[in-house]
Structures are given as structure tokens and as C-alpha cells.
Design a protein that fits this description.
This protein starts with a helix and ends in a 10-residue tail after the last helix. It is globular. By secondary structure, the chain is mainly alpha-helical. It has a single domain, classed as Serine Threonine Protein Phosphatase 5, Tetratricopeptide repeat (Alpha Horseshoe), CATH 1.25.40. The N terminus and C terminus are likely disordered. The chain contains eleven helices and no strands. Helix 1 runs antiparallel to helix 2 and helix 7 packs antiparallel against helix 8.
Length: 251
């Protein structure tokens, strides 16, 4: 199934679910542009034109992804938060992409938030990570990047305690912790709305929360419509709707 076919399928599913206010024609038109751009630049440094996201604080083996991720992780480990903000601002402003179309701003966030790998399987490791991100936020009060990193870290922290098993296997206390951490993520994203800078990843992070928190169809529909209006070519919105970048636990 082609990317465009998958997008059309997504629209059909959304319509079936009652999310009729979303302009599927607009989404399909965007998907056509994304697919056409990828055809024009089919060469990529990766083994696929559809790169998968970072799911751990481990460097990818393929360049230039690996070089950029090392750079961001080194800055973060050394608490050089100003450098991360400068790189994020440039990537966001210039809409920088790697060969193959993967957005640089997306990889920056993935490098700092999709931390499911070795070394992040304990509460201590998670808390240390969160404290460092909070320090970044305190030092850079106007940084939307720090807020989004913190929000997505809270979300990942929630899934860490919940696990990926069936709902019936999740203890009530773990479910409560998940909901508390999702609320923390929501609060961070809500506060970030008041900042001057805007970021397409803010919408992607909020879209995931909307699904995780079971928003009603009208509110979810309005959020997606706003996201598409802000940056229609940020294709992660559409992939998130299909669970491409997060594996939702089976109910």
C-alpha cells in the first residue's frame, strides 16, 4: 500500500469514527505533495525512504542522522541547553530536512524523548532525565523546545510505568500513574501555547495525548485541523493517527 493510499485509508477510518469535520481532501492533497517530493529525491542515507524514529538514547548507525543525534545528545549531557535551542530554532525556522524528507526538528525531539533503551528502565534513570530537562526549562523560560521535550518525556515516562501489555494486565496504581504523567505532559503543552515561538512538534505531541486521553471527536478534530493549518507538510501528524511512531497497548 502506498503512502497516499494509507492516508486515504486514514481519512476513511476518521470518517467512520465520526470525525467528519476534518478536511480529508486537504490532508490527501498534502500527502500527494509529500509523496511527490520523496520521489524527486529518492536517494537517502538510510536503507528506507521511510525512516523509523529514535526509540532510545542510542545513536543510529546511519549518517547524517547519527552525526546530528550525537551532537544533540552531547549538548544535552553537557547541559549546553542554549546550543540545543539555537539548533532547534534554526531547524524549525528553515524547515530543515535530511535526504529523504525526514525533518531535522523531529529527530532532535526523538533524540531526547524516545528513551526506551538500555539505561532507562529504572525510576532513577527517568527521574534524572526529567530533572535535567526541568533544569533546561528553568534556564530557558522562553524555550518551546524545552517544554515539548519535557512534555514528551512525561508521556514516555507514563508508558514506562504502564507497559505495553493488555489493559487487563495493568495494575490500577500503574494506570493512575500513567494518567498523572499524561496530565503533566498536557499541562506543559498548554503552558507552551503562551510562548512566542511555535513548533509543529507541539501539535504532534498534543495529538498523541488527545488519543491517549480519549478526547471527544469534536475537540480532536479541531486540533488536527489546526495542526494541518499550521504546517501541512509535517507528515508525522498523519502517521501518528495510525500509531506509526508509538505503539499503543492493545486493549
Amino acid at each position: 500500500m502506498s503512502n497516499l493510499q494509507k492516508t486515504v485509508f486514514t481519512c476513511a477510518v476518521l470518517t467512520f469514527l465520526g470525525l467528519s469535520q476534518i478536511s480529508c481532501a486537504r490532508i490527501i492533497g498534502t500527502a500527494e505533495r509529500v509523496v511527490e517530493n520523496s520521489r524527486q529525491d529518492s536517494y537517502t542515507s538510510q536503507s528506507s525512504n521511510n525512516p523509523k524514529p529514535i526509540k532510545a538514547l542510542r545513536v543510529r548507525d546511519d549518517r547524517p542522522f547519527a552525526d546530528f543525534q550525537r551532537e544533540i545528545l552531547n549538548d544535552f549531557n553537557n547541559e549546553n541547553f542554549d546550543a540545543i535551542d539555537r539548533k532547534a530554532n534554526q531547524a524549525r525556522r528553515d524547515k530543515e530536512r535530511f535526504t529523504g524528507g525526514y525533518w531535522k526538528i523531529r529527530l532532535l525531539y526523538d533524540s531526547l524523548t524516545k528513551i526506551y533503551g538500555e539505561g532507562f528502565q529504572t525510576e532513577e534513570a527517568w527521574r534524572a532525565h526529567l530533572e535535567k530537562v526541568k533544569k533546561w526549562k528553568r534556564q530557558s523560560l522562553d524555550s518551546i523546545t524545552a517544554r515539548i521535550v519535557l512534555a514528551e518525556s512525561y508521556t514516555a515516562y507514563g508508558w514506562f510505568v504502564r507497559g505495553t501489555g493488555f489493559s487487563s494486565t495493568v495494575k490500577s496504581e500503574d494506570r493512575n500513574k500513567l494518567n498523572e504523567r499524561l496530565d503533566l505532559a498536557y499541562n506543559e503543552l498548554t503552558e507552551a501555547q503562551n510562548l512566542k515561538d511555535k513548533c509543529p512538534q507541539w501539535y504532534e505531541a498534543m495529538l498523541f495525548l488527545a488519543m491517549a486521553q480519549s478526547w471527544n471527536a469534536e475537540d480532536f478534530d479541531a486540533l488536527l485541523e489546526e495542526a494541518v493549518g499550521f504546517e501541512p507538510d509535517y507528515y508525522y501528524y498523519y502517521l501518528t493517527l495510525r500509531g506509526q511512531f508509538w505503539e499503543f497497548p492493545k486493549s
